[in-house]
Structures are given as C-alpha cells and as structure tokens.
Amino acid sequence: MEILHTPDAKALIELQRKDTAIDALAAAAAAIPAKLKALEAAFEAKKRSMSEARDALMALQSKKKDIELRLAEAEEGIRKHQRELNMVKDNAAFKALLTEIEHDKQAKDELETSELMLLEEIDKASVLDKAVQEEVKKIEVSKNAEAAALADEARKLAAALEEGKAGRAAAAAAIGADLLEKYEAIRGSRAGLAVVPAHEDSAGKFSCGGCNMTLKPQKMMDVKKPDTFAVCADCRRLLYLESTIFG
Ligand SMILES: [Zn+2]
Q1: C-alpha 193 – ligand 1 centre gap (Å)
Q2: Around Cβ 122, how many Cβ atoms within 10 Å?
C-alpha cells in the first residue's frame, strides 16, 4: 500500500489530533506522582540535615556539661587539699599537698580553656541549627504549595483526559472500521503517531512530518491528491498535505 484514498481523511486527521492531545495529557498525568515523590524526597533530605545540625549542637552541649562537672571536681579538689594543708604537721606531706593543689589548678585552667573554645563552637552550631530549621520551615511551606498545585493539576488533567476520551470515542465511531484498524496498527508501532502532515520547505521539497525524510517526486504527487494519504516510504505513516485536505 503506497497510497490510500478515503472519504474519512479529514476525520482520521482529527482523530490523530485528539489522540495526540490525549497522549500528552496522559503523559503529563503520569509524570505527576514522580514529581510529588521528588518533592517529598528533597524535603526529607532537608529534614535530615536539620536533625544532623540539632544532633551536633546537643553533642557539644553534653560535652560542655561534662567539662563543667570536671571543673567542679577540680575546684572541690583544690578546696579539700587547702583544708588539709592546715592540718598536716610534716614538711614532706605539706609539699606533696602543694604539688596536688598545683596539679588541680593546672587541670582547672585547661578545663576552662576548653570550655571557652566549646562555648564558641556551641554559638556557631546554634546559629547553624537555627538557620537550618528556618530553611526547613520555608522549604516545607513551598513544598506544600507545590504539592497542592500538583494535586490541582492532576485533577484538571484527569478531567481533561475524560473529556478528551469521550470526544475521541465519538470521532472514532465516525470512521470506517478498516481504516481505524490500520490507523491503530501504525499508531501502535510508531509511538502513537500514525497520521502526519507533509512539510514543504522553502525550496519546494516535501518531507515526512513523522520521520523527516524527504519525499520522492511520486510521493509529492500522491500527497497532493484530494481525500488521499500517501504512505511514507521510510516510516510507513500516513501522510497528508494540510493545504489539500483543509485548504
Ligand atoms: Zn516518514
């Protein structure tokens, strides 16, 4: 079959347009769950980074508590040894206590230095924690808005699909069974596109609107005939000329 005459040419072209529109609606509807999933995943990742910042801050705060405890112990040690200083009689014990006190004081100094450094770290971690929390809040608001917009889009697409399918059924009912069967067979093997326009370039050459191959002179003649589809030699789609069919 290289050429196909039919009084249903116009109706078949309209059917293809409806099917193309329905396919686009169905693809858009099918893409929405993945978009929703990506939105949620991005938000969950952000939330994890929020808990990481919070955990880091808590770890620093618990370190600080530990240092405070050790500082109190060092101070208590100093006080205890100073009390003991007043009670010892011999010189050796006195000297030993002084050494102990010196040791405690040194430990206390070191702990105080660590505490200061830790306080700086806690300041930084708490600024980061606050910033991350605010960002998460912002992202949640925009995530929810986007999810609501997507749900709205899904409802609209579903309604348009239903309407499109009803219109499609009515259009298909007006076309002969043989032609319809041929159309569906080509559509099934050619990514949903069975009927395509022939395009004319500035040099007057025609090409297939489906596979873009240039038409041979005979095809150019065929496609210009009224109520006629020429079959593309390359992709086997049904070709028509807009100006012939609708002109
Ligand atoms: Zn083609």
Answers
A1: 10
A2: 17
Q: What spacing in Å lies between the alpha carbon of 239 and ligand 1's midpoint?
A: 8
Using the mean position of ligand 1's atoms as its centre, give its distance from the Cα of residue 234 in Å.
Answer: 5
What is the 146 CA–ligand 1 centroid distance (Å)? 40
CA of 174 to the centre of ligand 1 (A): 26
- Which residues have C-beta within 8 Å of that of residue 206, sequence separation ≥ 6? 198, 199, 200, 214, 215, 219, 220, 223, 241
* Contact indicator for 174, 7 with CB cutoff of 8 Å: no
- List of domains in the chain: 25-161 (1.10.287.1490), 176-245 (no CATH)
pTM score: 0.74
Q: Which residue has 């873009």 as its token pair? A: 212
Q: Give me 155's structure tokens.
A: 């409802």
Separation of CA 209 and ligand 1 centre (Å): 7
pLDDT band for 247, please (50, 70, 90 cuts).
confident
- C-alpha 176 to ligand 1 mean position (Å): 24
| AA letter at 112 | E
Residues 115-149: tens digit of each pLDDT? 999 999 999 999 999 999 999 999 999 999 999 99
